[in-house]
TrEMBL record:
Annotated keywords: Hydrolase, Lipid degradation, Lipid metabolism
SUPFAM superfamilies: alpha/beta-Hydrolases
Highest rank taxon of the organism: Bacteria
Gene3D superfamilies: alpha/beta hydrolase
Secreted is among the record's keywords: no
GTP-binding found in the keyword field: no
Protein name (record): Alpha/beta hydrolase
InterPro entries in alphabetical order: AB_hydrolase_fold, UCP031982_abhydr
Record-level Gene Ontology MF annotations: hydrolase activity
Amino acid sequence: MTAAIGVGCRLTSCPDAEQRVDLPLVLMYPAVAPATLRRLGPYDMTAAWDAAPAGTSLPLVVVSHGNNASPWTLRDLAAHLAREGFAVVLPEHVGNSRHDASLAGTLANLRNRPRHVSLALDAAMADPLLGAHLRQGPVGAVGLSIGGYTVLAAAGGRAWCGPHESPDGRPQRVEVVPDARLGALVLLAPATFWFAADEALRGVTQPILLRTGSHDTITPAEHGQRVCAGVADPNQVEHEVVPGAGHFSFLGVFPPSLNRPDFPPAQDPPGFDRATYQPRLWEDVARFLRRRL
């Protein structure tokens, strides 16, 4: 009898010479080994910790979290991808995370985030446990909210910061080195404020799975429309407006300690059931990446 594929998980980091920090990383991948529960801040994660990866030529996916958030907010999606045969790396964006929000709303943050994507991919490919099990070739990228900006910028989008983000109070180009390894993008309620200029997204040529919420008041309909109209080939965008969903409805279900009225990321518009919707989202993402990578 074949053993069931579970989720391996490894906590590591990589140096960011520009910020002079170590960038925390979560690696998830298929594994066949006993799983144990571990508490990580407010989150519980059951995984085979530091277990050997199962399989070879695993396609790699990088996941970018939202503003002042944590990789663990997208842990359920990452775990589903791991069970489906993907390797996933989730960087914590230092300066714009739950632990360190010191650069939120700055030009530096807009520059740093796409670089973190490339550093995370480099680290996953060089990881002594996982690296040899990865497939060579295009990788996937998933981004939620400002993580959507991050993925689009890393994929070739040309962003401009606003005057409130610029050190001199004037809009200016966000200098980003695109990562040619990105072969397919998943955008969940993406924030696209920085791509309003003409031709800003023409350099994005990858196929895109786009999900937006009909009741999103933070990145409303125009953000998804900007992606659909702005990329090189709009026919490459698979867009669904999810009825009743809000901005945070694409995040995983939060633990009871955070599921309270004064914590907006845990809340959905009345009538929307995040727990029921999530498995459909996970499978949409897995199916898209399987087809496009």
